[in-house]
Amino acid sequence: MIKKKDVLLKIRDLKIQGYSDETWVDIIKGVDLTLHRGEVMGLIGESGAGKSTIGAACMGYARDGTRIVDSSIEFDGMELTTATEADRRMLRGSRIAYVAQSAAASFNPAHKIIDQHTEAPLQYRLKKRLEAQEDAMELYEKLRLPNPQEIGFRYPHQVSGGQLQRAMTAMAMSCRPDLIIFDEPTTALDVTTQIEVLAAIRDIVDEYNTAAIYITHDLAVVAQMADTIKVLLKGEEVEEAPTKEMLDNPQEDYTKSLWAVRSFESPQRHRPTDGTPPLISVKNVDASYTGGEKVLDDVSFDIYEGMTVAVVGESGSGKSTTARVITGLLPPSKGEVLFKGEPFPQDYRSRTKDQLRQCQMIYQMADTALNPKVRISEIIGRPAAFYSGLKGVALKNRVDELLDLIELEPSQYYNRYPPELSGGQKQRIGIARALAAEPTFIVCDEVTSALDQLVAEGILRLLDRLQNELNLAYMFITHDLATVRSIADEVVVMQHGKVVEQGPKDDMFTPPHHPYTDLLLSSVPEMDPDWLTTLLEERGVDNVGDAATARIDPNDPKVSGTNA
Amino acid sequence: MSVFVIIYYFLLLGASCLAAYFNKRSAFLLLFSLTLVSFILGIVGGVSALRMVAIAAGLMALAAMVSYAFREFLIAIASVNMAKELRTAPLTAAFGMFVIFTVAIAGIFAPWIAPFGEAEVITAAFAPADETMLLGADQLGRDIFSRLVFGARNTVALALAGTVLAFLLGALAGLLAATTGGWFDQLLARSSDVIMSIPSLIFALLMLSIFGGELANDTTSFWLLSGFAVVTGMLVVTAMAGKSLIGWLIGLAILVGVAVLFSGFMLAIFNPSEIILILVVAVIYSPRVFRLTRAVAGNVVVMDYIEAAKLRGEKTWYLIRREILPNSTAPLVAEFGLEFCFVFLLIAGLSFLGLGIQPPTADWGSMVRENATLVSFGEITPLIPAAAIALLTVAVNFVVDWMLYRSSGLKV
Amino acid sequence: MGDILGLVAKRLGLGLIILLVISLIIFFMVELLPGDIAQAVLGQGATPENLAALRKEMGLDQPAIIRYLDWLAGAVTLDFGNSIVTGTSVAETIGTRFANTLFLATYAAAIAVPISIVLGVIVALLRNSIFDRVANVATLTSISSPEFFLGYILILYLAVKTGMFPAIASLSADMTFGELLHRTFLPALTLVLVVTAHMMRMTRAAIINLLASPYIEMARLKGTPPWKVIVRHALPNAWAPIINVVALNLAYLITGVVLVEVVFVYPGIGQALVDAVSKRDFPVVQACCLIFAATFILLNLAADVGAILTNPRLRHPK
Fold it and tell me: Which of A28, A486, B20, C221 has a C-alpha 20 to 30 A away from that of A552?
């Protein structure tokens, strides 16, 4: 519902330019925005859409190397573009506050959290120091921070990420501003932590009836938080509508493409029953980085030929480490990896060329996975030449064939360099490089998480098609359950370096589960605007996030039973 | 009040007002602060101080014009891509390129440009300048201008040779250490730490005190050079051969041949004491190059494409040559310029102390020393070779500054 | 606090090890000479009997490792043996000279450190303005000029032409402190010019690097006035880089001092080193090198310890 009240912020024809290569380039190309008191607007768009730049501009602030030109930004009757810097500064912190993406980097490491909190109220002489501190503790309590009396007197690095993000929201509230800009406040957090922060932010914004601009790239998140949603694309507005309307009935094609719930779902495959050994078998693996603690603890699972195993878990759960053990980058301290029933040498340096060929990898960040100074023809051609000894025309034909396979026109891409390609095209080149080795098994490390929805779906379809054509096995590392739903045959859930549960996909998405799986599954935001409300009612405010993780009872039969 | 002073202030104030009127903020700030500084200078130093400011400004304007013209000249003759790059060069960088170009010409064509021989005594000691001797004579009656031209050849060639050797050893070791990691990396890093904890000039003095005397002969310098070449070459062989024994044997055989050829070649160009100097410089600066290269390559090595290549089973040499080097050329070139400046200043300093290039070879550092007594008579002659050293170093630094700015700007 | 003490102790230990390795290098490098010091002292025409006698006297008949330990034990108690040219005690010859050098370096540092840090911060705040560019060109020029160039320019204009300061920095025991400062002003100024340029550039880079941190933007977006952003948010985090810059440049002063002492005929340890090198007086060379290296290591050590002590993450462990 929208609270139709006075207009608080009115932006007309916002143009922002950035300085690059000796010239000024338009970043924001004429965006209008109207925000009423107490209204929460979600700004949504892909990376490079200019969301964050608009957010800063709402405070009359242009980051270094950018400038606002010929625009009008009117906050509560005051024109910010023509106001003096001192006048603009008087608004910041007191009437417009900002919550940054990375709280860990945005808190000054040299001061206590509460001293940073009280800085603005003291600066504007709104409160005395002790009053301000009292107020901070009250806000901490409202935001459900543990030990609200004490937590403020710690230094930022002594507090966890999810708590710090809530402390930053409290800091933004310190002067009870009319408007808060939330710049991707939960993007850096894990899903289970995200819920806590979302719930806390929503409650406090409601309680003080503060207007907010909520910037994110996650549709499901914005659906929980915003009254109205504005969709941006490359510095221009696509459309704006109240949340419900926008979700039910988007107008523009671009919005529809964003909204399209992942329609692709590959049919579930099953393990062969004739007793062939699994292609890859991870057996009781322990691993740790030099001198560090154990990162993997007794991890075991099998991957059969032509099947996809999705490994899910939050950051630090050991998903990627498992992949490093399989590829031989990190020899395990205990246990072994079997390939077709035969032990695989633990260190990649002691593997034969053929063993190396069998197991390929596709990376999350296509930008860092492709050498920017090497032509596409060589990136794809090198493995073909290296493993199969192809030369001259045969090599060129093979590269053309591979480019055809990943649906890129060979003549057009053959001589280009990676920086000239889009994110999705780069990821396709990464796939082609893996295929060039003619492997039987590919590790896909978060291959779609850096891509926009639609492009990601294209990549998933491509991977599925290739799997059917070439009988490939995938180990699919991801934290996104939608991806799991569409491509996995089997699922392995990991937490703190242990496998907590594993089984065929269909079983995993039907309860009952191990409590952690349950928590993980329920914490992933859904497109339904009432999802958060319903979830909090079901689970209770105190049974989400870190609190819920801590609450998992080790003696629960589901916990002790699954891993045996 | 002389007419000069009146014209001086009139011009400055007029220019300031014009700049203010046309909203040229930075030009106005510069001109007006110069005016304010001139008031103080005029009171303290009188007309002569103002005259010096005017002369300096004139010289700078002249330098700016030369730089501008030179940049346009380079743009005109360069290829399309190069020209695009050159257009971004500030005037300081253009000035730097112009000076480097001039010194290079002077060095290469020294015998044709210099009117007299390098060690040719033509007149009385400290004879004043005349038509044949542009800058007068030095303490032995040799033409200073001719020695300056020959000095460009000697000093720069020596510094260049030292930098190239330091760079070959340091950069190869750095690339290899960054790529392989492990104990090899640790060992090299620790030893470079130790060498870098001795101040460079002090270490140079220590080594010269030992190798400077009777050890500066053909045999010793040949063996030292070959040793240096073998150590450097070993890095290449390690990277190329990997674990193959035959690779090692072939590599070592070629390496020994190359090392001997290289040493013979160096001995043909430089005399033994110069070779000792080059080696001393190379030993002192290679840890610095090593550290920087390792940092630069370290940023590349963490990339996923390196991991992909390693997992493919590529050899270290392929990783260095095809994957790492193409991505670190820009910072490495800038680094080469920086190291050249350090090396050049070190050699000039050593020569000034009488421990570097030995007479009668013409060299800028020792020329300052030889004519230093003239300073106490108010002559600027000894300042000229010193100024030449400063000018070339400034020039290289200007170009490096631009390149660093470009390479960091492109990353953002 | 235990963490900090541990780190500092570790760093101190590392410094000590490096110093030990350097003493090994300095000592055994001289061993590389064909023949030995005795031969170098007596020259080509020495009779075998004289050589043997001198060797015995200098302890050269002992194995190298014993002599090294002897030398090291002496060095720890500041006894560096006798000069082979004059025969006098090395410690006595370079003792006062080292004090003179320290005085000159301190004099230069006292002027250069405050000026360059203030200027560096100002230039960082005015970055990309015309003043920043002028400062960039000026500092680059100053860095690129050899010390003797700056020194002779100062002599020419401030000593010879105007006579404001003496060209030769000779010292005598009965000078007043003011006179001392006046006498040594030109060499100090030369050092100041070089070091200030270096320090300004490094301070500028450190501050600009710091101002790009998200918490500085956050402070600005909280409405904190610019001066307070610098004083309250940037400065507490700037100590480590600034301490580093200062220590690095003080270490640089030590090298620069050699050339400057020669230009101004200043009776410091640098000149002693240069003389010893040309006369091949190895005990003096070894002693000077060890002293320079030790000072250099000490300053780097101070920088690292300073950085550890000012790091808030280490001062307030989890």
Answer: A486
